[in-house]
Amino acid sequence: MEAVVDRRSPWKALRYRKFEAATKRDAVLREAARTFNEKGFHSSSLDELAERLHVTKPTLYYYFRSKEEILYECLLRGLGELEEAVDAALIASGSGLERFVEVMHGYAGIVLGDFGYTTVHIGQDPLSPQRRAQARRVERRVAHKLQSLIAAGIDDGSIAPCDPKIMASTFAGALNWITRWYRPDGAMSADDITGQCVNLLLAGFAPRNEASFPAGRRKSRVK
Amino acid sequence: MEAVVDRRSPWKALRYRKFEAATKRDAVLREAARTFNEKGFHSSSLDELAERLHVTKPTLYYYFRSKEEILYECLLRGLGELEEAVDAALIASGSGLERFVEVMHGYAGIVLGDFGYTTVHIGQDPLSPQRRAQARRVERRVAHKLQSLIAAGIDDGSIAPCDPKIMASTFAGALNWITRWYRPDGAMSADDITGQCVNLLLAGFAPRNEASFPAGRRKSRVK
């Protein structure tokens, strides 16, 4: 960002100011998500958020009009991360199941992150009806993409025939729940827990006759 | 309850008054759970609860000291229902998997109910540290019982070897998530959705070689 000290062109300085504003906006959103995740939406105040960011409350109002608008933007970030993970899987090569396994691992990382955690655990309830409807539209779009990936896996025979909506809900719920009890200082790493949960979902609770399981397919499910 | 008009014995009348008090207390708790589930804990007020029950706020204070105490009692009811379901499975006959399937179906019914929904979706965050610790103790006891049921299933070979804690979290998360999007007026019944979700969890997302699956075991997993 050498442009910041280059005063020959006002345009570069403007570009830098825009970059700086976006960075600060991001910092507000991330700290807000962390605050919501720690204390819940209703117990979090803009006073406290300003304090955590070492700024005044009017500074926050320069970027956002309300706590509710901040939550809305946090949810769009979380949903955006999920949509990116699904989009990447939709254009990747491999069987439907292989690509779905990628999504499951990506999903687990996202919901353990700041915006993903807010998306799952704070959710859309505190939003105004208008913003809730907008967030719901994005959520539905992501859900439909995910269900089409599952349908592709059923079509190519790599995923057992099932209702894609129920399968999507089953894996999402299972991975969301981990974030409720997982502690970074616990005995198992997040990757360990996620891996074991994904394997359980792929193989099922009832024991398999391993001998009858084709080697290639088995590899993809213990990934 | 003829005792209510029988004034010859004051003891019967007292017994009736106690019964009546317990019934009213139950009614307060159930309506409170419904209110929390609809509006969230922080957006629910005792004023509104009193209005929904057609009583005055002081009447509520006769039964409970605070909104937080009401939530605590609701959570104990929810956890109590879950514990009953696990206790019944622990003393039932059948393989570990068969008894675990019973628990999964019971669990789904409970978390779709008033107190179970509060237990899963409102949770212990709004409680005072003391009451939160007490609720956590009950929750841990139920979790340990559930994990011992899973361990019994692994021992008798009906459940695939896994970490019982992760398996318990996987099924609970999957079933909890259904309650987030299930609508009684939707296309599928709660039993249908639960049944499909339980079957997915038992059989896994990856297709099985059905021919190699023993008939007896298969029956228990499609229950």
Describe the structure.
The structure is a homodimer of 223-residue chains. Chain A has one domain: Tetracycline Repressor, domain 2 (Orthogonal Bundle). In chain A, helix 1 packs across helix 4 and helix 5 (96-112) runs parallel beside helix 8. Chain A has helices at 10-39, 46-53, 57-63, 67-91, 96-112, 114-122, 129-155, 164-181, 190-203, 215-221. The first copy, chain A, is mostly helical and 223 residues long. At the A-B interface, helix 8, helix 9 and helix 10 of A face helix 8, helix 9 and helix 10 of B.
Per-chain topology:
Two copies of one chain form a homodimer.
Chain A lengths: L9 H30 L6 H8 L3 H7 L3 H25 L4 H17 L1 H9 L6 H27 L8 H18 L8 H14 L11 H7 L2
Helix pairs in contact in A: 1-4, 1-6, 4-5, 4-6, 4-7, 5-6, 5-7, 5-8, 5-9, 7-8, 8-9
Count interface residues per chain for the largest interface.
A-B, 47 and 47 residues
Strand portion of chain A, in percent?
A: under 5%
Shape of chain A: globular
In terms of per-residue confidence, which ranges of chain A show pLDDT below 50 for 5 or more consecutive residues?
211-223
User: Any guess at the CATH architecture of chain A?
Assistant: Orthogonal Bundle
**Tell me, what is the CATH class of chain A?**
Mainly Alpha
State the helicity of chain A in percent bands.
over 70%
- E-strand count of chain A: 0
CATH topology of chain A: Tetracycline Repressor, domain 2
- Number of contiguous helices of chain A: 10
The ordered string of helix (H) and strand (E) elements of chain A is: HHHHHHHHHH
| Tally of individual domains of chain A | 1
Let me know the CATH homologous superfamily of chain A: Tetracycline Repressor, domain 2
Separation, N- and C-terminal Cα atoms of chain A: 41 Å
Quote the average pLDDT of chain A. 89
If you compute it from the alpha carbons, what radius of gyration of chain A comes out, rounded to the nearest whole angstrom? 21 Å
Regarding quaternary structure, what we see is: homodimer
> Which structural category fits the helices and strands of chain A?
mainly alpha
The largest sheet of chain A, given as strand count, sense and whether it forms a barrel, is:
none
